[in-house]
Amino acid sequence: MSDITAGTIANRGDAPPATPIATPPVFVWPPRPAALAKFLFGCPGYFLPLNILYMGLAVLTWFAFTPSLVRMKTFDADWIAIVYAQNLIFTVLVYGGLHLRFYIRKAQGTRYMLNRREPTAEHSRFMFGSQVRENVFWTAFSGVGIWTAYQVVTYWAFANGYIPMLNWEVHPVYFVLLFCAIPMIRDAHFYSIHRALHFPVFYKRFHALHHKNTDIGPWSGMSMHPVEHVFYFSGILIHWVLLSHPLHAIFHVQQTGLAPALGHVGFHKLLTKRENVYSIGQRYFHFLHHRYFECNYGGDGTVPFDKWFGSWHDGTPESHETMRVRRAKAHGVM
After folding, report:
1. The pTM is what?
2. Structural domain span for residue 287
3. pLDDT tens track for 25-69
4. Dihedrals φ, ψ of 205, to 5°?
5. Residue 255 domain-assigned?
């Protein structure tokens, strides 16, 4: 069995991930309107199910859980603690819930699993001697802490008028279009900072900590060096210069904080007790990045920078061979 299939569910009796992995029909020429409509409004697609859930969570957070902007004109520990508690609770529910289902209760065993092994290694290379405990530590303290810091300062800047606030009633179409575009904006930002973090000077000092997780799990998603967290959550800064509303910033930063759990879940399909099978998106795409490092730097390819800059791995043996040859040439070991 080739390395490209080893460790995938191809050897467990279940259908392997669909390959070749295709880029979404967004930035294509000539345009493909029928395919684009299916991608935008189909399920799974751009909106359904995940982005609609993130959007709903952002709306709920803004209207039900966010302190008033008047209160946030000054940095007070009480409302800052509320924001941190919200983010930590959402993180535990999403990351912990996925870990509980797939790796503690083992609800579907190893069916549709991508990893060679479960991400529960006990090894001295991990803090506390445990992969999961290290992942939880970096996620809960550094990840959620820096996520909250960006969010708190953004709230404060909106409250004091340092950031002009978009009025829904004056610009309703722009408000909705910007809200819908945030996942693409986030995808482009993620590729840019992730590619930079693979430059040797940054990789060795910072990003290597994340790549200790070769067999990934939900808690691996935001297990990063604090400097990487600063880069990773910096996407929210676009709302400091682009006319926005705090709701846009909440959606942006919450998706940034919660999406890595599913992106690193280590499975590419959800299997129910009744043997119904549901896709959970392009999990294979980012799994290949953790397996081969020098490919698939972006998200799910909505903005296909990987395709445009030659780092796209579509999951096929041919793609792997092309990348192997390129890497060998780069290191002078043909």
Report:
1. 0.93
2. 41-300
3. 999 999 999 999 999 999 889 999 999 999 999 999 999 999 999
4. -80, -35
5. yes
